[in-house]
Amino acid sequence: MIIHLLPDSPKKEGRSFPRLCFKEAVREKKTTRFFLTEPGVKAFEKSLLDLEGEGLSHGLLGISSTWDTCGQWLCSIGISTGESGKADSLKIWDSMSTLIIEAFYGGSHKQLVDLLQEDLEDCVLYTLPAKKWHWRARTSALYFSQNVPVSDNYRILFASSVLNLTELTALRPDLGKLKKVLYFHENQLVYPVQKCQERDFQYGYNQILSCLVADVVVFNSAFNMESFLTSIRKFMKLIPDHRPKNLESIIRPKCQVLYFPIRFPDVSRSNVITCGKQCTLLCIRFMPEHKMTHFKKIFGLKGNEDDTPLTDLPFQQKSRVTESLMKNSHLNLESGLCEVQSGPHTTQQDSLSNPLTKLEDLNKAHPSRNSDPGQKEDKEHTTLNLYNTLSGTDAQQRPLHIVWPHRWEHDKDPESFFRSLLRLQEAGLSFHVSVLGETFTDVPGIFSEAKKALGSSVLHWGYLPSKDDYFQALCMADVVISTAKHEFFGVAMLEAVYCGCYPLCPKDLVYPEIFPAEYLYSTPEQLFKRLQNFCKRPDIIRKHLYKGEMARFSWAALRGKFRSLLTTEPREDL
Question: CATH no. for residue 189?
Answer without folding.
Answer: 3.40.50.2000
